[in-house]
Amino acid sequence: MTVGIVGAGITGLALAHYCRERDVDAVAFEASAKPGGVIRSDRVDGRVLEHGPQRTRLTPAIESLIDDCGLRGDLLTADTDLPLYVYADGRLRQVPFSPRAFLTTDLLSARGKLRMLAEPLTGGARDDETAADYFTRKFGSEAYHNMIEPLFGGIYGSDPDEMPGEYALRTMRRMERSGSLVRAAVHRRLDGKERQPPISFAEGMAQLPRALYEHNADRVELETAVEHVAADGTGYRLDTEDGSYAVDRVVLTARADVTAGLLDSVDPESASALRRLYYNPLAYVHLVSEADPDGFGYQVRHDESLRTLGVTWNASLFDRDGVYTCFLGGMKHPGMIDRSDEELGRIASEEFETVMGVSAEAVNVTRHPRGMPAYDGSWAAMEAVDPPDGVTLATNYTGRMGVPARVREARRLAEAFATGDEGSATTAVAEA
Ligand SMILES: Cc1cc2nc3c(=O)[nH]c(=O)nc-3n(C[C@H](O)[C@H](O)[C@H](O)COP(=O)(O)OP(=O)(O)OC[C@H]3O[C@@H](n4cnc5c(N)ncnc54)[C@H](O)[C@@H]3O)c2cc1C
Asked: Matching InterPro entries, A to Z (predicted)?
């Protein structure tokens, strides 16, 4: 069996790698000259800047990929106990991730904390509520407003008020199986999942896909955009500018709108549904500052007058020579990415100074016009996505978004191809 993979981002590369391990014939076609997809890092004036993910977690699967590719020597790990903050009522306030921090944080009043503790007495997720309704019902309006909205909404650049629970809360539903979210969080802490440290690499996150590419270069065709997927006997044909390739199975890892264009002839209904999925636009401004805080960074509470959504403190996490990454745009200010570099740089640096009390200079702007899957009402279109046998959609709008989840899905698919378990190689249910 030959598997044709469209895209050599982390999903496509990990899939090519795991297929090799399992003796499954696979080839990944990548439109761009560089592997890695949204994972992009470079050096500007000697400093490492992250243009996509700022970090990931050292899960067992990622750790073994690192070892397979000989990347251990360049691995950077951050302290799991570094604090994360929310900017609220004019100050940075620590998000409590431990019982002690819960008692001492000033992000919540005593009343707000007591209300949070009542979560095990509340009911499970309902299909007809939004993520905002759900979290408010579970934890109370203060915890929602001060903590959950900035953190949960911050992951996707979305507004939980616009995120139907049916699509946005699948992970929460799984956590609820242990009786309550609080109990599930405690279990996660006890079984060590919360202790998987944040990681990056000496030359940035992009070192991981680059190393995976180098390790599997004979199975990855760079600068080879797939233009169509066509049915071909019992399998498929991938048409590229350089020629056509016959494969038995196709795995599509590109963005929903791109995948729609590829599927038009074999599955027009899925293609039309995929075109409706909305992604939040994001702009990243890289700042350099002499501020020297300890922590992950901060998210900004929704009702603050700042336009900044949040800031990652790369300087503190991975000793990145004064670098801070400021996020602008998202569902709250979608027009932000149309502003000039100068204006975005000015907004980011002025607001950084307001929060941190130290000046910052903008050194780069990166735009993601279709950045994060929004998991908003447009996700109802996923109900109509049902690719034909032999075609699997596997990326961050079908499964979970984070790099660890992408790697896990790639391994699951390779295993399904290796064992001939076609039922397990189907498209995952959309899951935030
Ligand atoms: C802005 C941003 C920040 C994020 N931050 C984090 C974070 O901090 N931590 C974390 O764990 N996760 C983060 N994520 C999530 C994670 O990085 C992504 O979900 C993951 O990298 C997506 O990988 P992928 O391979 O599925 O898709 P992609 O990276 O999108 O790769 C798809 C590939 O397909 C290629 N392609 C497109 N069209 C074609 C075609 N016609 N033919 C051939 N190839 C084609 C593209 O060039 C691309 O390389 C972030 C995501 C984004 C967008």
From this structure: Amino_oxidase, FAD/NAD-bd_sf, Protoporphyrinogen_oxidase, Zeta_carotene_desat/Oxidored
- What is the rounded distance in angstroms from the CA atom of residue 284 to the CA atom of residue 329? 9
pLDDT over threshold 80, residue 186: no
- Is the CB of residue 6 below 6 angstroms from any atom belonging to ligand 1? yes
- Give the 3-state secondary structure of residue 250: strand
Judge residue 328's burial from the number of C-beta atoms within 10 Å of its C-beta, 0-12 exposed, 13-18 middle, 19 or more buried. buried
* Contact residues for 17 (Cβ-Cβ < 8 A; gap 6+): 65, 68, 212, 215, 216, 410
Q: Mutate which of 5, 30, 38 to test ligand 1's pocket (most atoms within 8 Å of Cβ)?
A: 38
167 vs 330 pLDDT, higher one: 330
pLDDT at position 429 over 90: no
User: What does the mean pLDDT of the chain come to?
Assistant: 93
pLDDT tops 70 at residue 214: yes
Q: How close is the Cα of 136 to the center of ligand 1, in Å?
A: 31
* pLDDT bucket at 305, cuts 50 / 70 / 90: very high
| Spatial CA neighbour of 410 closest among 420, 397, 425 | 425
Question: Residues of 362-394 as b/e, b for ≥16 C-beta within 10 angstroms?
Answer: bbbbbbbebbbbbbbebbebbeebebeebbbbb
Contact yes or no for 6/253 (Cβ under 8 A): yes
Which domains are assigned to the chain? 2-40+54-77+203-277+376-425 (3.50.50.60), 94-193 (1.10.3110.10), 279-373 (3.90.660.20)
Residue 373 has which token pair? 């899957």
For ligand 1, whether the C-beta of 7 sits within 6 Å is yes
Say if ligand 1 is within 6 A of residue 54 CB.
yes
Whose alpha carbon is nearest atom 19 of ligand 1? 401
Residue type, 388: P
User: Could you tell me the two tokens for 128?
Assistant: 């007809």
Residue 406 CA to ligand 1 center (angstroms) comes to 9
Is the model's pLDDT at 171 over the cut of 70? yes
Distance (Å) from CA 12 to ligand 1 centroid? 10
